[in-house]
Each structure stands twice: as structure tokens, then as C-alpha cells.
Write a structure and sequence with these properties.
Elements lengths: L5 H20 L7 E2 L2 E2 L3 E4 L4 E4 L22 E9 L5 E13 L2 E4 L14 E7 L7 E2 L7 E5 L11 E8 L7 E4 L1 E2 L2 E7 L7 E12 L1 E5 L3 E4 L3 E6 L3 E3 L14 E3 L2 E12 L4 E10 L3 E7 L4 E4 L5 E5 L4 E8 L17 E10 L4 E5 L39 E4 L16 E5 L22 E2 L12 E2 L65 E10 L4 E8 L2
Parallel strand pairs: 3-12, 4-23, 14-23
Antiparallel strand pairs: 1-2, 5-6, 5-8, 6-7, 8-11, 9-10, 10-16, 11-13, 14-20, 15-18, 15-19, 15-21, 16-17, 21-22, 24-34, 25-28, 26-27, 26-34, 27-33, 28-29, 29-30, 31-32
Length: 551
């Protein structure tokens, strides 16, 4: 039985009601009269689904989860009617007979039924749709019919059942009897929640631990059975992961027996086998639409530790890798010079569940200790140069890298470059009279000597590491000890930043030779859709791995 659209039905049924009322107002000219008694006929209406958002405080209007027109004039429903003989004894007047829209009225198929014309010979009416459930309905005269029903486990085989009752109708009725149908199931749907989901194609959603059967009494509702089961919807829905997107709707809506439940398990499976699960509890009422907004954010953050950190992929799919290189502290002599900023690199990679990635976070380049230059940051930062009679320079920042093997710090991959996935360069160290070069990026930021205009000494640019050259692969240059001081030259210079290729520390001496270190370069050759940016992070480096897609 295909699922039926009740949104469109409501529009159609409003028109049908108007027609029926119109006929009533004109003396019901289309109704047959027998022995001066009016023929029994009906005015039909079906209310809309009541929408409920189960995991959010906001209520939103959503489309009815059923397709195709239901109870249009081309459809039929079945009817049961019990007649009171006037003394409290009931007999079955109509037993599961078909009602159709004929001659502009809803009526039983021939032979027709007529009112007795006696007021206390009342009639109880019970109607249901679709007619295919007749074999599951039991009925005893004078009692409300009951439906014994088990919900199919696959959503594509589930049907929407609607029923209507109108009891104690006078036997002298001369107008159409109203039948207002109501949904006896709760409709359950799924959407992407506020925090999003990894993109991909949703193969199935299964909800387990839900009552699968029960007895429905017309006019009184459900008595759920004692057994629980699992229900699966297989929508093959491709999602981008954006909040609010529907995962299931229309024919993929679950039609569930109203019930109170706790710790039911919802399992979501992508086409590639990646699966997530969560538990839900709540109450489902008949006629309600319950939309469960599913979110799953999978992020692994890596701070500086001064050693190896290992990521193991929990799922097969696409991961976004982000790295930030280490910055550098300012040099100090009664006050701090400016700090250096490490670079940023990002890209994606598709890996299988269980794959290991090896992560080394760059350390910040340290401040000088008087004349002694500061230590370079872990993972390739060059040491700051010692001053002669003035403050030493600060150390360069270390690079942050992610690789598919573990060979230790970045410099050890000189002969194994193809094992590296992504690198963010470290900043150069600073000097009292000269700023540090930023970490890369495609190239590390340059630095420049202070120069001494009064002495005719021009500033000299010190380039950072590039994609093809630098001080060394994976390592920034260490500063030494200045042999000659001078104006703007007695200070120690900053160390080079670590990176794919490390930055430089200026080795000149004399007037105007004060110089920050240049930055190391970044690398994105092992990832897809990569990009890099210079100079974005202060302090120690950082890394983040995010599961973004099951594709």
C-alpha cells in the first residue's frame, strides 16, 4: 500500500465538505428517499498532521510525510455501523462495507441504508482507511471495533491508517453524518541537526527498541504490545552536512505506534559503511510528526607536547587536516620586541578506518636571556643569536607537520618527503631593532636588517624558506655570537623558523646588522584542496583533524 498525501487531501477535502454542506442546504437533492426516510450518507474531513520537533525547542512547519492523495473522491473507505433498537440492544447494521463518492455524496455501495426515522434508534459509526486492513479488525455489536496491527520493519512497507467515529446519531437524522478522520500513528522523520553531520550519502537509519505491535480501539487509542523491534528507512539521501536538511521525508517517514519509550537506539549508516548511533527517549502521540535532528561533530585537537602524537581514523572517509606553525616570543631588553607569528596550512585526505597519522606540533621560539639568544622552538626552530653588548635574539618557531609515517622531527624526512602530508611553517625569531619573518605559507616571511642611515648602511632583506630552498629542509638556521657590535648591530639576531624549508638567521656583524630571523615555508603536497596562509598564530603551534565526509 503506497503512502498517501494528506496535505493535498486537506485542500481537496475542504472542497468536498463545502459541496456536502451545499447539498445539505439545498435540501440534499441528490439523496435518495425510501419510505419517506433519508438515505444514510456522510460528510468527510481529514485534519493535517500535527508537527512536533522532538530535539529542538523551536517548532517549524514541515511537509506532511505522506505522498499521493488520500480520500479524494476517487478513493473509498470502509464503514461499520451498530444500531440501537431503542432499548439498549445493538445489532450490526453495516459490517465493513465500502463507502464511495457517488452522485456527489459519500454513501455505501448498493444496497443503500436508510435512517429508521425513530430518534432513539441511534447508530454508532466507525470508519477506516485504507480498506486493506479489514482482515485485522474485530468487532462485536455494541462495542467499538479493534484493530490488531504489527508495523512492518521497513518504512517503505508502512502505511498511514486513519479512522473516524461518530456515535449515538439520532435515527431521525435528515442531514449528512460527519466523519472526521484522524491519524492513528505517529510520523517519525530525521534531519541534520544544528551542529551538522559529515557529508555523504545516507544509506539507512534504523531505530531499535520500539514497540512494533498493539491493539487500537476505535475512539480510545492504542494499547501497545510487549515486544519491541527495529525499524529501518533506506533513503539514499545525499547530504552536505548543513543544519536543517531533511534526511527522511515523504515515503521515507516511519509510521510508528504511539507510545512512551526510553533509550531507543538510532543508528545512521552511510553508503561507505561509516555508522553513528545515539539514544533517544520520549513520547509519541497519534497524529504527531516528530523530527529528530541528528548531529555528529568529529574533531580531534592537538596542542603542543614536545613529542609525537598519533591520530587513528575512527571512520573511513574524508578528513580535513589543519596545522598551525609555532610563533616566536619577542626579544627582551627593558621591553619586548614584537613577536613572530606562525603559518597555517589546510587540506583534506581520504583514509580508511584504522589509518594512523603522525603529528608533531611546533614549539614557540623562546625569549633571550640577557646576551644569550633564546632557544628555537621544537621541530626545527633555529636558536637566537647571542648579542655582544646588548640583548640576544629570540629563537625561531618550530614547524607543525602531519605524516603517514613516524620518523620523528621534520628534518628527519629529508629523504622521505613523500611521507609528509601537510606542514605549517614556524616564524623567525625577533631582535630588539628588527621584526621577525612570519611562518609560511608558500614561502616564509622575510626579515630585514635594521640598517644605519646615519652611517650609510642600507637595510638588507633576508628571505624566508620557499618550496624549493631555504636554510635546510625541516630546520631554521641557528644564530651564532656576534663578533662585532656597532650601532644597531650589537644585538643578537633572531633564529630562523622551521618549515618545509627553514628560514635564515642573519650572520653579518657591525653597524646596522640587527636582524630578525626569516620564517620557514609550509607544504600541502600530500593533501587535496589545500591552501596556506602566513603569520596567523602566536605561541606554540597547533593541529586539528576533522571528519568532514563519508564520501
Amino acid at each position: 500500500m503506497g503512502k498517501k498525501s494528506l496535505l493535498r487531501t486537506n485542500v481537496s477535502l475542504l472542497l468536498l465538505i463545502i459541496v456536502s454542506l451545499f447539498c445539505s442546504c439545498t435540501g440534499e437533492m441528490n439523496m435518495l428517499v425510501w419510505n419517506n426516510n433519508e438515505q444514510i450518507n456522510f460528510a468527510v474531513s481529514v485534519p493535517e498532521w500535527k508537527n512536533t520537533d522532538s530535539l529542538s525547542s523551536s517548532k517549524t512547519s514541515r511537509a506532511t510525510p505522506i505522498t499521493d492523495a488520500s480520500l479524494s473522491t476517487s478513493n473509498t473507505f470502509n464503514l461499520i455501523a451498530d444500531q440501537n433498537d431503542g432499548t439498549g440492544n445493538y445489532s450490526i447494521l453495516i459490517n465493513k462495507e465500502t463507502v464511495s463518492f457517488t452522485n456527489n455524496i459519500w454513501q455505501t455501495t448498493p444496497s443503500h441504508y436508510y435512517w429508521s426515522g425513530i430518534a432513539n434508534k441511534t447508530v454508532n459509526f466507525y470508519a477506516y482507511y485504507p480498506t486493506s486492513i479489514s482482515g485485522n479488525i474485530s468487532h462485536t455489536a455494541g462495542s467499538a471495533p479493534t484493530l490488531l496491527y504489527t508495523v512492518p520493519p521497513d518504512a517503505s512497507n508502512q502505511i498511514d491508517i486513519i479512522t473516524a467515529i461518530n456515535p449515538n446519531i439520532s435515527g431521525s437524522t435528515v442531514t449528512s453524518t460527519s466523519l472526521t478522520f484522524n491519524h492513528i500513528f505517529a510520523a517519525v522523520k530525521f534531519a541534520v541537526g544544528t551542529n551538522g553531520l559529515p557529508s555523504g550519502t545516507i544509506k539507512s537509519i534504523t531505530i531499535s527498541g520500539i514497540n512494533n505491535s498493539g491493539t487500537y480501539t476505535f475512539g480510545n487509542g492504542w494499547t501497545p504490545g510487549s515486544t519491541t523491534s527495529s525499524f529501518t528507512v533506506s533513503p539514499s539521501t545525499a547530504i552536505t552536512g548543513s543544519a536543517g536538511a531533511n534526511i527522511t521525508s515523504d515515503v521515507y517517514t516511519l509510521m510508528m505506534i504511539p507510545q512512551v519509550f526510553s533509550n531507543a537506539i538510532v543508528s545512521l549508516v552511510y553508503n561507505n559503511g561509516t555508522a553513528f548511533s545515539t539514544t533517544i527517549s520520549g513520547t509519541w502521540n497519534a497524529g504527531g510528526v516528530y523530527t529528530y535532528n541528528l548531529s555528529k561533530t568529529i574533531i580531534y585537537n592537538y596542542d603542543y607536547t614536545g613529542g609525537l602524537q598519533i591520530f587513528t581514523a575512527p571512520y573511513t572517509g574524508t578528513y580535513k587536516l589543519e596545522t598551525w606553525g609555532g610563533g616566536s616570543n619577542g626579544a627582551y631588553s627593558g621591553g619586548f620586541s614584537s613577536i613572530g607569528l606562525g603559518g597555517y596550512a589546510v587540506g583534506t585526505i581520504y583514509i580508511a578506518s584504522g589509518t594512523k597519522l603522525y603529528i608533531y606540533i611546533g614549539g614557540v621560539g623562546k625569549t633571550n636571556n640577557g646576551l644569550t639568544g633564546g632557544a628555537g622552538g621544537y621541530n626545527g626552530g633555529g636558536n637566537g643569536e647571542n648579542g655582544t653588548s646588548y640583548a640576544g635574539g629570540s629563537g625561531g618557531g618550530g614547524a607543525t607537520h602531519i605524516a603517514i609515517t613516524d620518523r620523528g622531527v621534520l628534518n628527519n624526512y629529508s629523504s622521505y618527503k613523500n611521507e609528509l602530508l601537510i606542514i605549517a611553517g614556524g616564524a623567525g625569531g625577533s631582535a630588539i631593532n628588527s621584526n621577525a619573518g612570519t611562518g609560511g605559507g608558500l614561502t616564509g616571511g622575510s626579515a630585514a636588517t635594521a640598517g644605519w642611515s646615519s652611517g650609510g648602511v642600507a637595510s638588507i632583506t633576508i628571505n624566508g624558506g620557499t618550496q624549493n630552498s631555504g636554510y635546510l629542509f625541516g630546520k631554521g638556521q641557528d644564530g651564532g655570537t656576534k663578533s662585532v657590535g656597532g650601532m644597531a648591530g650589537a644585538e643578537g639576531n633572531g633564529g630562523g623558523g622551521g618549515g618545509w624549508y627553514g628560514g635564515f638567521s642573519y650572520t653579518g656583524s657591525g653597524d646596522g646588522s640587527c636582524c630578525g630571523g626569516s620564517g620557514g615555508s609550509g607544504y600541502i603536497g600530500g593533501v587535496s584542496g589545500g591552501s596556506m596562509q602566513n603569520g596567523v598564530r602566536s605561541g606554540n603551534g597547533y593541529a586539528r583533524i576533522t571528519f568532514v565526509s563519508a564520501n
